[in-house]
Design brief:
Helix Hairpins, alpha+beta, 3 domains, Beta-Lactamase, five-stranded mixed sheet, four-stranded antiparallel sheet, globular, ATP binding, 445 residues, Heat Shock Protein 90
Length: 445
């Protein structure tokens, strides 16, 4: 019975050794594949592939790793060795995923009794369009040898463990080992939920667990500092901009009496002032109710319709279709910055989505919902969960201009009045961004 339990415990450890070796090799070569994908972007557009072929040959000679680049039609453009057959099952599967713009899947575990190479592929992308793929055929002999050594060590440890069971130390050892791991698991869940100040104790543990605890604490500290730097950057930027903007407004306000052009500049200064105010709020609390209330409710539908008058002209100038959907009156907190929210949503829809773009205001129970829908490529399920995070941008849109703060500001504005932002894929494709804010019951339509 003891032997069976020991074997059962060793199976996941053996799988971890094989999976870890595979993941380490994959990640190390993924960086090289990303570099080749970057270097191949210009040659795939210009057709000048001589330097790219030379880089591939040098890389092959240095790392004993064949590399080749294909275009979107799977034609081999540059390779470090001849005889590449893209129709091979492993290459064909990898190219299907890469040329479709999907994220690469984790490779299978490496075991000593297997053979073959690992395929690492990355798309060559320009302005969101896939031009081709860079592919590495990575030898796995050394990694499999490493797995073999790890399995032998595991077998030795298994025999030692069985001997330890015989002399009656299983229970205290198990309790000693699992307690810190359980604490580390709980701490990891706390960090995942946003408690970046979570730390684990590292005293009185095995050296390996101490190192693991120290690594976890260092990771949590780095995450906390990164979040703090983001907040400090936004706060400092808004603070530094406020004084010169105020001074500029005073000077331009004086000039506006003499020049019509200055009046337009004054309008732009006021808009910059509102942006600075939004950045300042973004750097502060995200909790709802962090505003000074007013007794008069704001009709969200009416405010949206008034703002859409200008946006219809903007969309028409760019030959984009803007559809005004159903507009149901509904009272919301007057502190809600409707113009700023709508500006962000319509600007994002025009840049990252596809026409037609439809705007509507509806009621849903105790909420009033401002909805903006486009008919673009939309977002994957993982990306939908990250919408509204500061400085986050979808992988498909990182080549386009932007800061990743627009939807974060929208989420902050909604939170100030007790609202929220929801992103979802609609039927028929595209993306819907909903700003849901509490309905003021006593609003008089």
């Amino acid at each position: 019975m003891v032997v069976v339990l020991a074997i059962v415990a060793a199976v996941p450890l053996a799988n971890y050794i094989a999976t870890s070796a595979s993941r380490t090799l994959f990640l190390s070569r993924s960086n090289d594949a990303d570099w080749f994908a970057t270097m191949a972007e210009s040659p795939l557009q210009t057709g000048d592939i001589a330097s790219l072929r030379e880089l591939a040959v040098r890389y092959h000679e240095l790392y004993n790793t064949p590399v080749f680049v294909v275009d979107v039609d799977r034609r081999v453009i540059a390779t470090s060795r001849s005889g590449v057959d893209v129709a091979e099952s492993d290459l064909d599967s990898a190219l299907d995923s890469t040329l479709a713009g999907r994220l690469p899947t984790e490779p299978p575990s490496l075991w000593p009794w297997q053979t073959g190479e690992m395929v690492v592929a990355r798309p060559v992308v320009n302005n969101g369009r896939v031009l081709g793929a860079a592919v590495l055929r990575v030898p796995t002999d050394k990694a499999r040898d490493q797995v073999e050594r790890g399995l032998l060590l595991l077998l030795g440890g298994l025999l030692i463990s069985i001997g330890a069971v015989v002399i009656g130390i299983v229970r205290p050892v198990t309790r000693w080992v699992l307690r810190p791991l359980d604490q580390l698991d709980n701490a990891t869940h706390q960090v995942t939920r946003g408690a970046l100040d979570t730390r684990v104790a590292t005293d009185g543990r095995a050296p390996e667990l101490r190192r693991l605890g120290d690594s976890f604490n260092s990771m949590a500290l780095s995450l906390h500092q990164a979040r703090q730097r983001e907040r400090e950057f936004v706060a400092d930027a808004s603070h530094q901009l406020r004084t010169p903007l105020t001074s500029a407004r005073i000077h331009i306000e004086g000039l506006s009496r003499l020049s019509p052009t200055a009046r337009f500049a004054l309008s732009d200064i006021d808009r910059l002032g509102r942006i600075v105010q939004r950045l300042s709020r973004l750097a502060g609390s995200d909790r709802p109710g962090d505003v000074e209330g007013s007794d008069d409710a704001l009709d969200l539908a009416q405010a949206v319709k008034e703002r859409l008058v200008g946006w219809k002209a903007v969309y028409a100038a760019d030959d984009l279709e803007l559809i005004i959907g159903e507009m149901v009156p509904g009272g919301v907190a007057p502190e809600l910055e409707v113009d700023d929210i709508l500006d962000v949503l319509l600007d994002n829809a025009s840049k990252y989505g596809a026409p037609p773009v439809e705007v509507s205001v509806l009621r849903d129970g105790t909420e009033v919902v401002l909805s903006v829908r486009d008919h673009g490529l939309g977002l994957g399920s993982r990306d939908l969960k990250k919408v509204g995070e500061r400085f986050w941008r979808s992988a498909h849109h990182r080549e386009m201009p932007g800061t990743g703060l627009g939807l974060a500001i929208v989420r902050s504005e909604a939170a100030r009045v007790g609202g929220r932002v929801v992103a979802r894929p609609p039927i028929g494709g595209g993306l819907v961004i909903e700003v849901r804010v509490p309905l003021i019951d006593d609003y008089d339509m």
